[in-house]
């Protein structure tokens, strides 16, 4: 089941929207853009529904920070504003779709389904390498009944490399895509996480993470 994040500072609207969507999707909530970014750090989200006018960090600012960090999660912006310039600002910030309040929930469900279909959410959640399965919906790695514990960044790093076997990713690319463009982490962070992944999978024959001296890393997948 896809996970929808509702970002809305009005508690009643947030509760109502959650109630209307929960029969069809798993729902998470946040009261402003800053809280939403915290949620994105903790769990997998398939689509975001966000209000524009919120305290601390508004909808436009939230989407802008997401896109600058390389997050391509679809976003539907909800607003009471009707002006063309407001919609232009929303799309320019990286918004995928736009609805004005009051919310027509039947129409919202149509738009959610269309966006999820276009982003191929159902086909991008899982990678299988030999007997190993990486499931990005639950951030789990498993082989048969055996489960491998991975921190969130370890999982995202491994998922990225195994999604493109044989492709070399520079340390800068990995930092930008996984930690975000404005991260204070450095290339030693990448090395530390790679070493942790190697240690956790040292008895697995499905793949190796290869260091390309002076460049970065790539995953080599083996037939098992």
UniProtKB/TrEMBL annotation:
It is found in: Cytoplasm. Its main location: cytoplasm. The keyword DNA-binding applies. GO terms for biological process: regulation of DNA-templated transcription. Residues 3-116 form the Response regulatory domain. Keywords: Activator, Cytoplasm, DNA-binding, Phosphoprotein, Transcription, Transcription regulation, Virulence. Residues 124-221 bind DNA. It comes from the Bacteria. Pfam families: Response_reg (PF00072), Trans_reg_C (PF00486). Residues 124-221 form the OmpR/PhoB-type domain. CDD domains: trans_reg_C. The keyword Ligase does not apply. One of its GO terms (molecular function) is phosphorelay response regulator activity. The modification 4-aspartylphosphate is found at residue 51. GO terms for cellular component: cytosol; protein-DNA complex. Member of the two-component regulatory system HssS/HssR involved in intracellular heme homeostasis and tempering of staphylococcal virulence. Phosphorylated HssR binds to a direct repeat sequence within hrtAB promoter and activates the expression of hrtAB, an efflux pump, in response to extracellular heme, hemin, hemoglobin or blood. PANTHER family: HEME RESPONSE REGULATOR HSSR (PTHR48111:SF49), REGULATOR OF RPOS (PTHR48111). This is Heme response regulator HssR. It comes from Anaerocolumna jejuensis DSM 15929. The lineage of its organism: Bacteria, Bacillati, Bacillota, Clostridia, Lachnospirales.
